[in-house]
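Summary of Year 1 activities. Much of the first year was spent building the evaluation harness for sequence design. The harness presents a backbone, in tokenized form, and records the residue chosen at every position. We chose the following record to illustrate the format because it has been used consistently in internal testing since the harness was completed.
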């Protein structure tokens, strides 16, 4: 839109938490403020500690601005605008680069912030619907998004019903369920070991999330962060060679291959007997909250061989396995398919 003042005025109609933020070339994105939160805000029995995703270099941020819409890409930069087909056929490193190219503060939305939005919607009773069956919601087929002529998969950003937003209101964040799987930052698997960029440091412009980065840390069952490869860290395991059920363990007893994977309905993910699950794993959306009843049939897939990067929230084809709790840790960072998109975020 050429008249940015008009855009600001239009966005203000969504609510005070919606804001137009400009990148370092002066181009706009429509963003939603997500205020700093505590574990106890969204996790059953959680503490009053600030969720780590709002802490960057030891400083607590009052808010993170998350793209209201799945992003498009123009001039190699990510933008959040309504009424567009979201960008697909983009890999992890390209998604990171499209966010960072916008300037300081811009970053690929964190896995933990995506998980927080889902947990918040569970607590509010507003689990979002979305494009999970080729233009319509699988469980509510009368709810449809807009598809331009010739498109059979993606819906235009923001074109669904209010129930397609995380708070069931147009003031919220659209399409965290369906349309495209979203690459998210700050999490990976390496040979089954769960690794993160600590706190919210993946928001930093100079954060290195490459395969060889030394910033990645593994997680012990008591929640402490340690060097990757340390004995006794939390890992994704499968029950056996003949049973592909996913579970959380401190060792990998059965490994997948590139031609198979392990999976489980997210609400049924369990830990191996004797393995404790820290609240951080719940906050990351890797383990179900015992107090949540709205997880549905959302599914969690993983491969515990090699490096695997996360996709969140399911896509247009996931049907009965779709949902905002759906998580895929199947693909390498080079994966680029018509089902993969992304969402940028911004921090002051």
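For this record, the design step produced the sequence shown next.
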């Amino acid at each position: 839109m050429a008249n940015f003042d008009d855009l600001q005025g239009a966005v203000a109609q969504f609510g005070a938490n919606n804001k137009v933020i400009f990148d370092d070339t002066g181009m706009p994105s429509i963003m939603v403020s997500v205020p700093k939160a505590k574990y106890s805000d969204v996790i059953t029995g959680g503490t009053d500690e600030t969720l780590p995703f709002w802490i960057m270099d030891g400083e607590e941020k009052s808010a993170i601005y998350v793209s209201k819409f799945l992003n498009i890409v123009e001039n190699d930069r990510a933008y959040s605008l309504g009424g567009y087909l979201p960008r697909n056929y983009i890999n992890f490193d390209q998604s990171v680069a499209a966010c960072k190219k916008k300037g300081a503060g811009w970053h690929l939305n964190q896995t933990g912030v995506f998980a927080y939005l889902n947990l918040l919607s569970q607590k509010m009773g507003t689990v979002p619907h979305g494009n999970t069956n080729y233009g319509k919601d699988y469980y509510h087929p009368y709810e449809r998004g807009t598809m331009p002529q010739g498109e059979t998969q993606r819906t235009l950003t923001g074109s669904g019903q209010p129930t397609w937003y995380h708070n069931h209101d147009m003031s919220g964040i659209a399409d965290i369920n369906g349309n495209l799987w979203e690459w998210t930052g700050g999490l990976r698997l390496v040979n089954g070991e769960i690794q993160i960029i600590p706190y919210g440091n993946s928001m930093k412009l100079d954060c290195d999330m490459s395969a060889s980065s030394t910033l990645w840390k593994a997680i012990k069952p008591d929640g402490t962060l340690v060097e990757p490869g340390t004995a006794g860290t939390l890992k994704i395991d499968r029950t056996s060679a003949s049973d592909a059920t996913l579970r959380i363990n401190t060792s990998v007893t059965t490994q997948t291959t590139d031609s198979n994977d392990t999976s489980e309905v997210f609400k049924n993910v369990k830990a191996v007997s004797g393995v404790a699950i820290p609240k951080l794993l719940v906050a990351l959306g890797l383990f179900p909250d015992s107090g949540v009843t709205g997880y549905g049939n959302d599914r969690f897939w993983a491969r515990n061989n090699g490096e695997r990067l996360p996709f969140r929230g399911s896509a247009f084809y996931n049907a009965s396995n779709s949902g905002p709790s759906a998580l895929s840790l199947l693909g390498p960072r080079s994966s680029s398919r018509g089902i993969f998109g992304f969402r940028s975020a911004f921090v002051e």
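Helices lie at 4-12, 39-42, 92-100, 111-124, 279-283. Quantitative recovery figures across the full test set are reported in Table 2.
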